[in-house]
Amino acid sequence: MILIALIGAHGGVGVTTVTAQLVTVLNQRGLRVLAVDLSPSNDLRLHFGMALEDRSGLALQFLQQAPWAEAAYRGMEGIDFVPFGSLTLDQLVAMDGATQKDPQWFLGQLKRLDISEQSWVLCDCSQGIYPFQAQVVQAADMVIVVLNSDTQSFVKARTTQLFPLGDQPAASYLLLNQFDAARELDRDILSLVRLAFPTQLIPTIIHRDEHVREALASKRSLLAYASSSQSALDFAHLGAWLTDWTPGQREVA
To answer: Which of 35, 44, 128, 142 has its CB 3.0 to 4.6 Å from that of 7, i.e. a possible disulfide?
Structure first.
C-alpha cells in the first residue's frame, strides 16, 4: 500500500480538487485507489457523486465506535472513497480529543479495511491542523503540499509553517496549483519557488482552468467532462509522475 497525504499551504489552495482529480487519474490508469477525506469540510464526496444531504462518514463511525467499512462508498467511475461526514463543533472537538489519545487511530482503521498491498490511498488532509490529520501526514509515504502562485503560499513555504503539528516528512513535495501564465505575479512566484525548492517542486504545474469548476457543477470528473483541457492534461501528467515514484526512491533536500 502506498499512502499519500495532501495538505494545503493555507486555506483555499484547492487540496480537495487536486485530491479528487488525482484519484480519478490513478483509477483510470488501472490502479487500485481509495480516497479518504480527513477534512471536516467534508467536500471530497461531492467530486464522486455522493448526495449532498448524506451526512455519513468516517468521523461519525469513529464517534459511534463503528468500523470505517460501513461508511465506504463506490462513486462515479467506480472510485472507492470514504467521506469524512458532517459533524457539529462539539462532535469535532470530541473526535479531536479522542484521536490524540490514540496515535495509531488512523493506521488501525485503515488496516481494518483490508486494503491490498497494491492499493494507493490518497487522503485529503486540508491544512493538516488537526491531530488526526497529523497522524496521516506522519505515516504517509509521500506528502504533497499544494500551493497557489501567490505571496501567502510562498511565505508559508519559506518560513517552514507547512507542518504545524509535526516535523516535515522525509518525502514531501510541493505542487503549484491554479497557475495563470498570463499573470506576471504568477510567473514571478513560480520562479521563486523553483529557486527555493529545486528538488521538492513537482515538475508538473496545474494551470488555472474554468473546466475544473464546470466539471464539478456537472457532476462529472474533469477527465470525463473535458479530457483535452489544459487542466486535464496537467493532472494526467501529475498521475504519470506519481506512478513513476516509489517510497524511498528519491532523496528530498
So the answer is: 128
* Residue with cell string 461519525: 60
**Mind listing the pLDDT tens digit for each residue in 206-232?**
999 999 999 999 888 898 899 999 999
pLDDT band at 172 (very low <50, low <70, confident <90, very high): confident
**Contact, 72 vs 113, CB < 8 A?**
yes
E-strand spans in 28-114?
A: 33-37, 73-74, 80-82
The CA-CA-CA angle for residues 227, 142, 32, to 5°, reads 50
CA dihedral 71, 75, 79, 81 (to 10 degrees): -20
Cell numbers that stand for 34 in this block: 481509495
Q: Is 214 exposed, middle or buried (0-12, 13-18, 19+ CB in 10 A)?
A: middle
Q: Do residues 80 and 74 make contact, with C-beta atoms less than 8 angstroms apart? A: yes
* pLDDT exceeds cutoff 60 at 183: yes
What is the rounded CA–CA span in Å between residue 193 and residue 104?
34
Residue 135, pLDDT score: 87
Lowest mean pLDDT among 5-9, 130-134, 142-146, 227-231: 130-134
H-run or E-run covering 15: helix 15-28
pTM (two decimals)? 0.90
Average pLDDT over residues 106-133: 85
Alpha-carbon distance 13 to 24, whole Å? 19
Report H helices in 120-246: 131-139, 151-158, 184-196, 210-217, 222-225, 230-243
